[in-house]
Structures are given as structure tokens and as C-alpha cells.
């Protein structure tokens, strides 16, 4: 187990290293000069050269990369070109929003999808199952930016549950902050709930037709007990894998939803950093996102090994 | 078993109910405006307002001599200016203005992109600053300068009693420090300064390397406190508003400068520039009442309903179809002339801009009244036969194909490209549209000049005719269409050196006629911009430049 863990951790860092090199190279190769974007097109060439050397952009690419990497290892992510503020403080200011949104969305997904999935499996092919299935399909079919706009119009403009664009800062009013996040979280959650419900339903149905379930019933074990003690244990591993993927996706900043609801999170920062060729900021954000994805995958693997002896590494 | 299920269901319902509790806390009861009835669900995001300017470098101004300019500012609502009677004004209050662009730097010497200058106009002032008519008025200076007869020295007196936001009096030392710093940073136009001398604590003398009767517009550059190092995090100037706070991507908050030198101004106590990701988000904010005003495009302005007054003005930039004059077939003047006869600005204005735009036929904006040559507007009346004839003379009887590269964040240019593609089909010319993001456009098209044709609005660094016409000089760094004309270069040098105002005007008009004749580009329009203000607010002042002046905005009493 220790050997396995250490191997996984080495792979994790290697992945991050490769991602950072790829990002760095890609963004340095595509056209776009942050210096001209800051100074405007009317600037004099001398002024542009001055700023370029001030920002260190006139040095060779490998030198800049190594410098950035050294900084990263020491926990110093450099300064944003666009805002000339430390990248660290920019990201730190965004994280609470993105993480709260993610946690809220995950909470909604888990408390809605798991019971509904099991319920659908038990009522399979009945009217209620068909209705819930159709609703799930609808959630999957509607693009989530449209769902976002629809939510803003219905709950914001018409029903006045919240004021669109009036983002409440968590320092000012935490309850209001969670309240404002509830709708974007729901928009993120709905399509994922639909996926998870379908997945869970199929997994549970597959288990319900298995021999050991028939055995359990013949022993007179109650319906609920069969589900909770026997079926779920076997149906959960694939669901956990999927949930892991969903969580990684949500934690890396739901870019579109943050744009639609004007939430100052990681996603919006990423878009702005790309459209401004803000290299230090892009690199750090991409590495952060890659870290979340790789790390959550790692956790899922470890968790699966813990609950399912069949896939334990020897 | 059924009972158990019901209990389970109840528990879940309870959890859901608890999760929904915060809802009660987040309904904003202060939103007084009822939402407009129109809904924006599927409008395509265009990231900026119609004024798609190629950013200019210094804060702008008009020529001093000749009351040259007035941007045509037709207001479809009651837009009063400062000159309005002082009745009906309720001083105080706070105002939230939405922006889809965002300031990057707050240090006025670092922040030179048009989008940033638009906002910093409220924080900083130069020795002189433009008024709504585009004329330069003394600001940090107490009066207009004494200019020596040889146009080599400009002497200014610092306005008595003027203070920085930190309460310190502005001295000649501050002025010298500011101009030296700005010139040291190679800010455009200031390279002509030889020396800045402090004559006495309130007098500065600026000596130039080359005589220039039209140097004043460059002196709109911000005056800042000497040796103050924190401009980027806590800017200090002399403008009507002082800095309060800045959260990137969220808001820039300004508070009233209580010791502002202009009597009665500003009216508002607090101005918040709210930074939105795109026009859709901005529209929703306007409709929900979380934003009191914004610069919007014509499409958005139509959707706002009756809760807003819409103030129309020019964007003061010329939208152009630019050809790369150095590549085939656009190196052939006949081809460019042919396309000038095919592209119909009127159709573009009515299709893309709902008829709101001012047709132009020159690189100079109509706002620069004294210099703008209106006779060129209809130089190329639509004439398909003539265009076909010119094309066959140039050897393209069957037309040709080329690519129009357009920055994707400016919806107005993308739409214009689509109209032009259709217009060109009538003479057998096939154009493909290639959309690129703005940084790519700046690199590939503007800096490297690797393109065939492009559509962009071009503005001037300031309101002198040079800033619009200098880029047509063969060696100019801003000459991204590769126009080369020895006649033009000679005439331009002559025009700049001319000190008699009437001759200057004549020479600058001749330059425009030369450009029109050679047709390096097709000049389309000065796009209209719309500033929406919530009912109850007034005092919008249009400027013949890309700025938003919050100092004249007030609540009606």
C-alpha cells in the first residue's frame, strides 16, 4: 500500500510538471503580446520595450519557465501582468467563492441524486420512474448557460429571490452569500444530478437482478435492508468514480456559470487571464486546476480500494 | 415498509427545506426598479460597447486654437450638461455605473489602454483637460499657458488653492516631477519636451525641442504628487473623485473629492464602476436595478424599456475596412477603388447599428469639426458598374478571394464583416471572415501586419488632427495598412510645421482628400454609443473622446 501510494504521488507531481510545461509553451507560442495590451496601440516602441524588460518578458522562454517553477516550489507565484498584484492574492480572493459554489453544488447533487436514483431503480418502469427519467433527460439536454439565464430571469428578475449581479461578499453577509450562490449551484448541480441518477439507477437495477439479492430476499431480509446492506455496497464503486470526476470538474471553477452569474471566482479569473495573455496567472491557474483533477482522482482510487477489497493492490 | 419510505421521504424534504432557507435572506428588497418587460435570453454576447477603439496612448484633448470640436451629441432623452440651470439638482447620493471592460492599472502612466483611461478621467487631471465641446480648459493650471512666439516655450501658472486627494497643495515641483516621469516613460508626444523648469513655486516653463503650436493636447497627461510610489494600489490625483477601493473584476469605487477646485462639482458622493463579464450580464444588472447606468450598444438600449433615459453620442472613432496595401491584390489602387464603390456604409449603418451612426469618408472623426472634411463623406457613392469596370482594368474580371480578419470580441465588427461579404458578392469578389481573439488581432494584424483585410474602429491619441492622420505617414508605427505615399509624407510634414491656423486647417483637409483619392481603406462610420441612465438621474456629458465623466451626473431634486 505504501509503495502504491508513493508511486501515485510521484505520478501526481509528474503530471503537474508536464501540464505546466505544456501550458507555458502553448501560451508563449500563440500570438498576443500583453505589453501592447496594457499600453495600447498608440504607445511608442521604446515604451513597449521598457515595460517588456521590466516584466522580464524579454528573456528567453526556458529561463522564464525555470524562474516561475522555482517560485512555485517556494509558494511564490509571481505577479500578474495585468493587475501588477501578486498572483497568490488574486487567487486567494477567488477561492472562497469557487469552493463554496462547488461544495454547495456537490451537496445538492448528493442529497438529490442518490435517493432519486435508488427510488427510480426500485420503481423501475413504473409511471413515476418514467417521469423522473424524462425530467433527468431534460436537465441533460438543456445547456447550462441557458439554464443559468433562465434561472436569473425566473428567480431573479421575476420572483425577486435574489438580485442578479448583486453578488454578496462572504465577508459582509455569509447567509446572503450562500443564498446568492444557491441558484448557480443548482444550475451546476442539475445536469450532474441527471447523469448520476441514470448511472445509479442502472447500477442498482443490475445488482437487484443478481443472485445474491434473490438469496437475501429468500432469507426474508427486508426490502430496505437489501438495498442498504447489500445492493448499495456493490453499486457504489462506479458511482464514486463518476462523482469524483464531477467534483474535480466543479472545483476547477465552473467557468460558464461564473460568467453568467457574474461570480468573481476562479473561472472568471481564468477567462480574463487568457484574454489578456497574463502568463503568470494563466500558468498558476492551470496548474491549480490540474492539481485538483489529479488529486481528486487519486482520492477516489484510494477510497475505492478502502471499500472494495476486490480491487485492492497487493 | 411503506411507512419507512414515507419517513425517509420526509427527512429528505426537511433537508431540502433547510438548504433553501438562506433564500429568505437574499431577496434584495432595496431593488426599486421593476424589471423591464423585455428579456434577454439569447442575445449573443458582444463584449464591448460599440466604441471598439484601438486603444490610444495619452489622455486626450482638443486643439486650443479654434473652438474646433463638438461631438454631435444628440440626446434622445433629457440630457442636461453642467451649463444647465442649477435648479432641480439634489447633491449627494451614490451611483453605480456598469462596465464590460475593466481597468487594469490605476497608475496613470502605466494605464494607457483606452478602457482604463475612460475611468481614470475621474481621478486624474493634467495641466489642461478637455470639456464636453472638446476644447481644452485649464485644470491643474490656473489659466491657459503663455506660448512664446517661436512656439518653443509654454509657461503655466499652477491654479491657486488646488490640492491633491491627500490634502497636499499642488506645486510647480509636482508638475515638473509628473512631466519628467511621463516623458521618461516614453509616453507618446512628450518626447518633444527638452526641459521642464520650476520658475517659482507656482510657475513652470516647458521648453520644446521642436516648435509646436499644437502641443497643448499632450499636456492633458496626469499631474501626480512628487515621489509618491503607490499610484497603482492607491492612486492620488486632483480629479473630481478620489480613490476608495479596487477589487479586480468586481468594482472600482470612487468617493467625492470634497476639495475639488470646480465649484459645485462633483454632485455625487460615491461612484462605483461595476465590472461585468459581458453585455448580457450588464443588461440583466440594468434590468434588476443593481446597476444605475452603463454604456450600451444600440441593441441593448432597445431592450431596456422605459426605466432608463438613453443618451446617444458618437464613439469618436472611425470604423474602417482596412486593406493591407502591401499584399496582392490590394497593392493595386484600382482594386481598392472598386471595393470602395461596392461597400455601402449606409447599408451597414442601417443593418448593424439600427441606423445609429454617422457616415464618414475620412480617417478624421466628425467631432473634430474644424478639420473634418465633410465633402468626402459621399466620395464613393455605390456604383456596381464602375466597380466591375475597375476590377476588369486591374485584371480581376472574374473577381478574387480574400480573408477579412476580425477581432471576435467586437460583435459590431463581426456583423459589419458579414454585411460586407454579401455586398462584395455582387461584383464576384469572395471574402471569408476569420475571427481571432483581440490579443491575436493586436499581434498578427496590428503589429506584424500579416493579414489581407480587417475591420476595426480607429481613434486618435488626442483630439489634434495629427493623431488621426499621422498613421498614414509611410514610416508610422501605427500604419498597419501599409499605405505608402511620398506626396502624403511631404504634405504631412508641411501641415505639422504650419503655425497659421487657417493654413493648417486647409493642409489637413488636403491630406484627407489625398487619402480619400488613394483609398487605402474604406471609411465606414463613426459608430453611435448609447449611455443609459436610470430615471431620476441626469447630467450626462458627452465628450468627443472615449471617457465617462461622472462629475456632472446628479440625482434630480
Automatic annotation (TrEMBL), chain A:
Subcellular localization: Cell membrane
Family: Belongs to the binding-protein-dependent transport system permease family.
ABC transmembrane type-1 domain sequence ranges: 95-300
Keyword annotations of the record: Cell membrane, Membrane, Plasmid, Transmembrane, Transmembrane helix, Transport
Residues spanning the membrane: 12-30, 99-119, 131-154, 174-197, 239-261, 281-304
Membrane topology summary: Multi-pass membrane protein
Principal subcellular localisation of the protein: membrane
Organism: Candidatus Chlorohelix allophototropha
Protein known as: ABC transporter permease
Entries under PANTHER family matching the protein: DIPEPTIDE TRANSPORT SYSTEM PERMEASE PROTEIN DPPB-RELATED
Automatic annotation (TrEMBL), chain B:
Keyword annotations of the record: Plasmid, Signal, Transport
Keyword 4Fe-4S carried by entry: no
A Pfam family that the UniProt record links to this protein: SBP_bac_5
SUPFAM superfamilies found in the cross-reference section: Periplasmic binding protein-like II (SSF53850)
Annotated GO MF terms: peptide transmembrane transporter activity
Domain Solute-binding protein family: 136-478
InterPro entries noted in UniProt: Peptide/Ni-bd, SBP_5, SBP_5_dom
GO biological process, one term: peptide transport
GO CC annotation terms, alphabetical: ATP-binding cassette (ABC) transporter complex; periplasmic space
Signal sequence range: 1-24
Family, as annotated: Belongs to the bacterial solute-binding protein 5 family.
Identification of the protein by name: ABC transporter substrate-binding protein
Amino acid at each position: 500500500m505504501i509503495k502504491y501510494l508513493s508511486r501515485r504521488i510521484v505520478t501526481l507531481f509528474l503530471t503537474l510538471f508536464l501540464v505546466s510545461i505544456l501550458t507555458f509553451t502553448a501560451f508563449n507560442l500563440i500570438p498576443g503580446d500583453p505589453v501592447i495590451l496594457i499600453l495600447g496601440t498608440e504607445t511608442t516602441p521604446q515604451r513597449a520595450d521598457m515595460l517588456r524588460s521590466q516584466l522580464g518578458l524579454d528573456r528567453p522562454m526556458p529561463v522564464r519557465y525555470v524562474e516561475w517553477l522555482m517560485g512555485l516550489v517556494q509558494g511564490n507565484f509571481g505577479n500578474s501582468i495585468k493587475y501588477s498584484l501578486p498572483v497568490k492574492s488574486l487567487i486567494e480572493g477567488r477561492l472562497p467563492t469557487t469552493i463554496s459554489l462547488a461544495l454547495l453544488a456537490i451537496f445538492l447533487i448528493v442529497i438529490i441524486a442518490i435517493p432519486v436514483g435508488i427510488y427510480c431503480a426500485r420503481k423501475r418502469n413504473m409511471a413515476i420512474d418514467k417521469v423522473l427519467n424524462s425530467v433527468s433527460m431534460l436537465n441533460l439536454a438543456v445547456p447550462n448557460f441557458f439554464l443559468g439565464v433562465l434561472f436569473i430571469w425566473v428567480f431573479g428578475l421575476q420572483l425577486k429571490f435574489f438580485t442578479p449581479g448583486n453578488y454578496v461578499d462572504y465577508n459582509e453577509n455569509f447567509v446572503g452569500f450562500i443564498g446568492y450562490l444557491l441558484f448557480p449551484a443548482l444550475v451546476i448541480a442539475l445536469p450532474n444530478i441527471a447523469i448520476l441518477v441514470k448511472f445509479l439507477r442502472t447500477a442498482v437495477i443490475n445488482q437487484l437482478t443478481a443472485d445474491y439479492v434473490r438469496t437475501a430476499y429468500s432469507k426474508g431480509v427486508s426490502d430496505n435492508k437489501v438495498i442498504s446492506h447489500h445492493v448499495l455496497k456493490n453499486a457504489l464503486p462506479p458511482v464514486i468514480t463518476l462523482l469524483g470526476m464531477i467534483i474535480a470538474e466543479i472545483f476547477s471553477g465552473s467557468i460558464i456559470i461564473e460568467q453568467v452569474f457574474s461570480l468573481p471566482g476562479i473561472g472568471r479569473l481564468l477567462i480574463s487571464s487568457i484574454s489578456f495573455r497574463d502568463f503568470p496567472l494563466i500558468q498558476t491557474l492551470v496548474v491549480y486546476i490540474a492539481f485538483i483533477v489529479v488529486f481528486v482522482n487519486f482520492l477516489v482510487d484510494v477510497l475505492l480500494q478502502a471499500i472494495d477489497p476486490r480491487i485492492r493492490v497487493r | 415498509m411503506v411507512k419507512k419510505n414515507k419517513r425517509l421521504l420526509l427527512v429528505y424534504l426537511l433537508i431540502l427545506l433547510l438548504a433553501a432557507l438562506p433564500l429568505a435572506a437574499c431577496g434584495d428588497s432595496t431593488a426599486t426598479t421593476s424589471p423591464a418587460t423585455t428579456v434577454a435570453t439569447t442575445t449573443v454576447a458582444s463584449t464591448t460597447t460599440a466604441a471598439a477603439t484601438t486603444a490610444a496612448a495619452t489622455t486626450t484633448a482638443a486643439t486650443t486654437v479654434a473652438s474646433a470640436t463638438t461631438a454631435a451629441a444628440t440626446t434622445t432623452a433629457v440630457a442636461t450638461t453642467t451649463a444647465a440651470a442649477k435648479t432641480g439638482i439634489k447633491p449627494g447620493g451614490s451611483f453605480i455605473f456598469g462596465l464590460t471592460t475593466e481597468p487594469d492599472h490605476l497608475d496613470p502612466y502605466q494605464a494607457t489602454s483606452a478602457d482604463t483611461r475612460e475611468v481614470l478621467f475621474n481621478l486624474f487631471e493634467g495641466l489642461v483637460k478637455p470639456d464636453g465641446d472638446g476644447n481644452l480648459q485649464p485644470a491643474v493650471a490656473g489659466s491657459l499657458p503663455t506660448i512664446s512666439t517661436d512656439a518653443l516655450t509654454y509657461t503655466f501658472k499652477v491654479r491657486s488653492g488646488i490640492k491633491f486627494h491627500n490634502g497636499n497643495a499642488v506645486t510647480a515641483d509636482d508638475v515638473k516631477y509628473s512631466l519628467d516621469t511621463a516623458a521618461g516613460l516614453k509616453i507618446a508626444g512628450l518626447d518633444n519636451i527638452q526641459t521642464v523648469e520650476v520658475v517659482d513655486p507656482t510657475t513652470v516653463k516647458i521648453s520644446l525641442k521642436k516648435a509646436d503650436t499644437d502641443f497643448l493636447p499632450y499636456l492633458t497627461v496626469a499631474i501626480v504628487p512628487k515621489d509618491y510610489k503607490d499610484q497603482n494600489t492607491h492612486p492620488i490625483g486632483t480629479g473630481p473623485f478620489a480613490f476608495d477601493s479596487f477589487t479586480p473584476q468586481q468594482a472600482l469605487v470612487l468617493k467625492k473629492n470634497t476639495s475639488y477646485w470646480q465649484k459645485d462639482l462633483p454632485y455625487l458622493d460615491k461612484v462605483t464602476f461595476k465590472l461585468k463579464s459581458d453585455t448580457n450580464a450588464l443588461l440583466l444588472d440594468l434590468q434588476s436595478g443593481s446597476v444605475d447606468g452603463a454604456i450600451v450598444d444600440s441593441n441593448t438600449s432597445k431592450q431596456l424599456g422605459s426605466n432608463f433615459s438613453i443618451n446617444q453620442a458618437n464613439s469618436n472613432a472611425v470604423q474602417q475596412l482596412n486593406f493591407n496595401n502591401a499584399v496582392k491584390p490590394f497593392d493595386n489602387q484600382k482594386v481598392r477603388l472598386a471595393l470602395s464603390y461596392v461597400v455601402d456604409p449606409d447599408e451597414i449603418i442601417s443593418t448593424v447599428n439600427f441606423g445609429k451612426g454617422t457616415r464618414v469618408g475620412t480617417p478624421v472623426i466628425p467631432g473634430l469639426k474644424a478639420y473634418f472634411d465633410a465633402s468626402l463623406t459621399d466620395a464613393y457613392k455605390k456604383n456596381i458598374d464602375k466597380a466591375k469596370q475597375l476590377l476588369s482594368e486591374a485584371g480581376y474580371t472574374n473577381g478574387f478571394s480574400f480573408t477579412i480578419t476580425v477581432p471576435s470580441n467586437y460583435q459590431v465588427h463581426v456583423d459589419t464583416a458579414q454585411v460586407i461579404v454579401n455586398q462584395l458578392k455582387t461584383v464576384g469578389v469572395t471574402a471569408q471572415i476569420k475571427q481571432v481573439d483581440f490579443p491575436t488581432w493586436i499581434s498578427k494584424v496590428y503589429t506584424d501586419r500579416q493579414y489581407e483585410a480587417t475591420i476595426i474602429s480607429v481613434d486618435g491619441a488626442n483630439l489634434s488632427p495629427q493623431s488621426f492622420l499621422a498613421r498614414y505617414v509611410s514610416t508610422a508605427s501605427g500604419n498597419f495598412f501599409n499605405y505608402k505615399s511620398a506626396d502624403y509624407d511631404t504634405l504631412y510634414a508641411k501641415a505639422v510645421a504650419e503655425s497659421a491656423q487657417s493654413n493648417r486647417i486647409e493642409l489637413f483637409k488636403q491630406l484627407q482628400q489625398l487619402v480619400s483619392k488613394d483609398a487605402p481603406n474604406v471609411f465606414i462610420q463613426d459608430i453611435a454609443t448609447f449611455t443609459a441612465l436610470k430615471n431620476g438621474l441626469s447630467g450626462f456629458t458627452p465628450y468627443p473622446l472615449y471617457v465617462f465623466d461622472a462629475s456632472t451626473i446628479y440625482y434630480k431634486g
